[in-house]
Amino acid sequence: MKTALVIMAAGIGSRFGGGIKQLAGVGPAGEIIMDYSIHDAVEAGFNKIIFIIRRDIEKDFREVIGNRMEELCEKLQVEIGYAFQDLHDLPEGVEFPQGRTKPWGTGQAVLACKDLIREPFAVINADDYYGKEAYVKIHEFLVTESRKKNMNFCMAGFVLKNTLSDNGAVTRGICRVNEEGYLTGVEETGGILRTEEGAACERDGVLCPLNPDSHVSMNMWGLTPEFLPLLEKGFLDFFARLSGNELKGEYLLPIFIDELIQNGQAEVKVLETADKWFGVTYQEDRKTVAEAFRALTGAGVYQTPLFADLLEQKV
Hints:
Layout: E1 4-8, H1 33-44, E2 48-53, H2 58-76, E3 79-84, H3 106-111, E4 121-125, E5 128-129, H4 132-143, E6 152-159, E7 170-177, E8 183-195, E9 198-203, E10 206-210, E11 215-223, H5 227-240, H6 253-262, E12 267-272, E13 278-279, H7 285-298, H8 308-314
Parallel strand pairs: 1-2, 1-4, 2-3, 6-12
Antiparallel strand pairs: 4-11, 5-13, 6-11, 7-8, 7-11, 8-9, 9-10
Helix pairs in contact: 1-4
């Protein structure tokens, strides 16, 4: 069964302090986080990769990962494709607001690849490391549970305290989960900091405590093609509500999926993972992430070269 991994790599990365954070080398041999994501996804059974990028980073992207990944994926019998997120790619009848420079968000990013997706798919951020367990669980859900009923999706549920940066505030989707393990709500929450007590978010200059054991969404979703028409309609509805926030408003996956849940249009199973997330939000994070990958390699979780184990299986 064909299953796709959609990698959102079009973010500007302004907090990274210059450069393209998705392309920062962090592995023992200069691997970037996407290398590990693709390795873990292919190992779990995904056999199609779609990169969502911007035209202005295409040259750098292909030089750092695209060209060699195309060669590698051919050997692994994995399909690969590109989609391009564009500020000016708006619904029919919507005028582009002059002065807008900020991307339209993760919802628009996924819409950029709507013509490439015909199979169940997972969505991830390019600059997040999710661990192996989440890919295995999402792939299993997509090839079994997602086909049992319409609009049946899943999400990798991480623990908040395992997803924080030591170098500054982060944004997380704080989740509400019922006793059956289904998502009942997700609140996109910014300004989350690690504290002595665990975690807190900054609101109007005041730190509000958060439960460090809360489930959070790290934008790792398991979806099906039937999701895309609703996402497209939701983008048009987003503009109908945008008045006054044309320069900064974003169409975000967690918010849209929460709307579907509240309207009874979708069910989202939360697949719990105990893996520790890490990623590159700030330039200072790069050292910490590099140390983590060295430790994982030293423990035998990954080989050097990284894809040697998967290539051996194809021989």
